[in-house]
């Protein structure tokens, strides 16, 4: 088990990384007095794949309730926001102190975290990410949001979880395309903050793609630590430090918008966006041409696009 601290001034918490680490959530909730009724928000697909693990972890039924939701970006909608809140309200009639567990990818974390931030003016929640992208990025830092028809992530909050529990074993069933989306963010961390990580991603590509346990653990822990340090330094993007995490995302958001969020995944858009950003930096005399080649080389190892 690896534990990485997120050293925020007011709401510090830890990222717990290890196989079967979800089994520690119950004890953690008790020790930290989070509440006496945990509500697990989980996509149908994750529940079907890990039904036995989930049911054995979150029991007895008097202590935990499970709310199943749909997959994908459309989960982050007003419809699902109020649907889940109404389900929580039904359990709230039991007059228990509620906390949430967001067990899924980034959309579950975004929706569940946002609900936690507004339900009864704020209740505790735990992030339990199941995709690589969520494990190394979206579950850390407290950003929560839903989409409106007019724009993505337009209604949201920065509301920190009480803890993050990251179990790499969930990645064993993650489709290659989804896995590679997360790799785009991992490569971003290597570019903006850690040359050793960048070299690791370049030299250990086959091991990582085969999801070798030791390589995955090192990858997740290293990326999580980078995100934790940046978030701890600039929690609400008030100092300009956290904006470094947006490398590649300015172009990516433009690409996604032009495609109306169809035909291109977020990870693919970030991949192309990083190459575009490097080209622009080169044209402005801010980086060497070799860097563009190095970035493209590593992106291609993981089947990520480097141009439109």
Give a quick summary of the entry.
The chain is α/β, with parallel strands linked by helices and 308 residues long. The chain is built from 13 helices and 9 strands.
Q: What is the fold named in CATH at topology level of the largest domain? A: Rossmann fold
Helix content: 40-55%
Number of strands: 9
* Main sheet characteristics: 7 strands, mixed
Assign the structural class, choosing from mainly alpha, mainly beta, alpha/beta, alpha+beta, or little secondary structure. Answer: alpha/beta
Strand content of the residues, in percent?
Answer: 15-25%
Describe the 3D structure.
This protein is an alpha/beta fold and 308 residues long. It folds into 2 domains: 2-171, 3-Layer(aba) Sandwich (Rossmann fold), CATH 3.40.50.1970; 175-301, Dehydroquinate synthase-like, alpha domain (Up-down Bundle). Helix content is 48%, strand content 15%. It has helices spanning 25-31, 44-49, 51-57, 78-92, 106-118, 132-138, 176-192, 195-203, 205-209, 213-233, 249-258, 266-283, 289-301, and strands at residues 2-6, 13-17, 37-43, 64-69, 98-104, 125-129, 143-146, 155-158, 163-166. A 7-stranded mixed beta sheet has the order 1-2-9-6-5-3-4. Strands 7-8 form a two-stranded antiparallel ribbon.
